Amino acid sequence: MKLDDDDFSLFGLPRRFAQDSADIAERWKALAAKVHPDRFAADGAASQRLAMQWSLRVNEAHQRLRDPLKRAAYLCELRGAPIQANENTRMPAAFLMEQMEWRESLDEAKTHEAILAIDQQVAGRERALLAQAGRQLDDDGDAAGAAESVRALMFLTRFRSDIDRRLEALEHS
User: Fold this and answer.
1) Do 130 and 69 touch, CB atoms closer than 8 A?
2) Cβ distance 72 to 131 under 8 Å?
3) Phi, psi of 78 (to 5 degrees)
4) Which CATH superfamily is domain 7-66 in?
């Protein structure tokens, strides 16, 4: 193992979007136990510092690999198509229209049920986009297309936060 290995190499996994979450968790536990700083307590300060670096590296890799959206974004980056969500906010017109319609519907929604119906639509779109990104990465070799799908997913994640806030506000009114 090397600190500069990519997350997939570190965990001994193929560089694919499709992964078994239980396998990721199992590999993380084994790696975390192997590099835990307590194992190196008797080896001196330098060994403990190195173990801390390894522990941090393993935990960061685990965070990226276990979350499908983060894993897709990481794969895009590894394949030369970084997401650059803050710099690249271009989206297809149809997606933007869909967003505007959902935002208008959310603004007009007066009941818990109406807001939940919007949330279900958005959740369905998220699932479809995540599956699309997986196909683009694993089957089509289309990292640029997957990057666009991931950026759209990030938009939807922020919108779902707006929905959650709206539901909370409705519950407290």
Assistant:
1) yes
2) no
3) -60, -30
4) DnaJ domain (1.10.287.110)
Architecture of domain 93-171: Up-down Bundle (1.20)
Tokens, residue 15: 């560089």
pLDDT the model gives residue 36: 86
> pLDDT value at position 45?
81
Query: Any idea where the domains of the chain sit in the sequence?
Result: 7-66, 93-171
Q: pLDDT under 50 in the chain at which residues?
A: none
